[in-house]
Amino acid sequence: MDSMIIAAARLLATGDLLGALKRVALRNDAPALALRGIAMAQLGDLVRAKALLKTAARAFGPKEPVARARCIVAEAEIALVSRDLAWPSKTLAAAREVLETHGDSLNAAHARHLEARRLLLIGYLDEAERLLAGVDPTPFPPPLRASHELVVGGIAIRRLRTSAARAALKRADAAARDAGIPALRAEVESLSEVLNTPAARLIGSGGERLLLLEEVEAVLASGTLVVDACRYVVRDGDVLVSLTTRPVLFALARVLAENWPRDVSRNALVARAFRAKNADESHRARLRVEAGRLRGELHRIADIKATRDGFMLAPRRAGDVVILAPPVEEQHGEILAFLADGEAWSSSALAIAIGASARTVQRALDTLAAAEKVRSFGQGPARRWTIPSLPGFPSTLLLPGPLPND
Q: Residue 401: inside a domain, yes or no?
């Protein structure tokens, strides 16, 4: 690389985007195009950044595999930030292998973190953990060390390991301060705030109250029978029964838990589970069938007993029954939760993250838009959905690689 490219790369690494652009703005060689793409990405013009990086990758050609791989990694980060979850993850994995083969350990580690962040975003926690297994972030530069700890902290939060999450985020904050990149510090602070924000409501015989994430962790470890309306499961200690695909059964379990230790009348169960205003004999027959199915699902942790007026929940071991519900329950709350990260999502990306059909998600978005809870911009495949939040391009791209004499 010539002196101007090296100077631009140094400025880009320290966050001086305009200074970097001044040195490469009028150049069309491959390294300059790549650096301009990174700068435009961090300035928020993701469309222009993606085009520049594609052009740079073509300009490098097959004789420069490392430079092309770095462009692919940069493009993958743009895809992640713009929530283009359909971007081919195998392409990123192949680029990482090229970088590892040629000894570019820093960019290879950055590619690994991007893969893990994508997996974390769509809920593949085991795969994300396997990607990071055995990775020692100690020799990484501060920005990459912060990125590593952010992924570790994010996995710990999703696993409800709050102590591990706090430790990882503390290390991420220290690394972000060393890096001196405001957007990176903002990302760490944003994720840290999750630990200090109500994560669920506890509903039980003692009333209702909001819980922080560490309090949720304590409830799940307390030996109480928990009907989890956040994940649609019923659990007693280590025994977990998923009712994600059985909404009627979960509705019955929740109504029974809400009234425990009392029984619930058949009419009330029919109204809540089947949404029928008047229970007739066909509803009662269906209720008997569904109660039997629920009894079969929960047989290890609870029984569903018939009473004179209806049914009641009878835990086998637990001495108490509670419900964990989202802090605010409303229609399409899962979509709003994803949009709350402040990024612009496409309906197809939301469908991948939630595990629903694109058409189902689109109908939900139209409903939320009519209620003015979300907003969109763009047309056709470029249409994106957001709710008000903090903007920002959180992490740095390491495309230039180690510089001479560093």
A: no
